[in-house]
Amino acid sequence: MSIRVFIEDNKLLIEYSPDNGVKWIDEIIKTDEEFTLKRTFTFRQQDFYEYNETDDSERTFVIGFIEDGYFRIEKRILDTTQDVLIHTSVRISIKTFISNNDFSIFKRFDRLANQQIIIGGDTYPNSIQEEVFIEIINSLPSATELRYYIDSRITNVLGQYLENVKDSGKAFERYLDRRITLPPFNSLDSLRSYETEKYAFILENLKTMLDNSDSYSENDWQDKILEIILLLYPKYIKCFSEVRINDYYSNPTRTTTRRIDLMLVDSIGNIDVIEIKKPFEFCVITKNTYRDNFTPMKELSGTIMQVEKYLFHLNKWGVNGEKALTLKYQSQLPNELTIKVTNPKGLIIIGRDHNLTESQRFDFEIIKRKYSNIMDIITYDDLLKRLENIINRFITQ
């Protein structure tokens, strides 16, 4: 089967060559019925172009006529509410009309815009310029992307109930990472739709994870949250686990080692420490007050102390630590990138705060700000709010 759009005799034509011949098309049209091609073009007998009954390999139809510098395509043919106008300077192909997933582009435009669609030229003030139109077409999801998306949605649910379900969500994220269908652009406007979809996908997955957190092991939970963190903090290019660092102070007679669960490396080699805890409801601040103050829960205060010690020992290790860490992880770092211990900071992902009272929230904010010079303390509800704010920013811009 082949479909070709071309221009002849000042007419816009479409040539259709089905694998099973054209007699069935002739039979439909001879009975005064309509023939619809690829769910996009609807033809009648009058639309034939130079009809030759003896040719059983292809049929050619007229889809547009030149009028004042534009090809006018009747609304009857495209099933739109108004005729579509395409300037004669626009490069036209079958992809101008039909998406990768076999849906009518102009029918979808017409439904969403609720006004006449005009492509190219400068006669009409509301015309869509050719380069913008091409950007829109190229940004539409392919059949492969839709398949990845559907698989990820299904396996995300199945994974909550069945063992050994393939993690299609990672496959979808990898596909999005290497997707290069967007053409060169003059502004960031062309990325907004993609970014909105990406962060909406992350937000939906995080909500599902929080609803089913008990079904994850500690390690699996850390791995999945880390993927989200690396997307929210794109300055980090690598994360290493179980990182051994020297401790010169715990035992005065010999050097001991400590293990950092997760160490982040940014694009110029600076390192930070991250601790990811599972989202228990009541682990950040006490329910009762001590001298009229809410205080950190043991889980939070212990994690803060743990991160403070990591940062302390990293700073004391200094230049020797930089050399040791660079040597150990050199093969996993970009060429010539060296690890730098430059006042590393901590990042703690812990607990929920959506059920806190206003007084608890106030005291919890004081606690967070107390440590803000050396670490960020983020709850899972903070992550949800950040994702929602990012999505709203792209939508409202």
Task: Characterize the main sheet.
Answer: 6 strands, mixed
Structural class: alpha+beta
Number of strands: 13
**Helix and strand succession?**
EEHEEEEHEHEHHHHHEEEHEHEH
Residue fraction in strands: 15-25%
Separate helix tally: 11
How much helix is in the residues?
A: 25-40%
Tell me the Rg in angstroms.
Answer: 30 Å
Tell me the number of structural domains: 2
* Largest sheet, spatial ordering of strands: 1-2-5-6-7-8
Ends distance: 43 Å
Low-confidence stretches: 181-185
What is the molecular shape? Answer: elongated
- The whole-number mean of residue pLDDT values reads 88
Can you describe this structure?
This protein has 397 residues and is an alpha+beta fold. It folds into two domains: 138 residues, no CATH class; 168 residues, no CATH class. Helix content is 40%, strand content 19%. The chain contains eleven helices and 13 strands. The two termini are 43 Å apart. About 1% of the residues have low confidence.
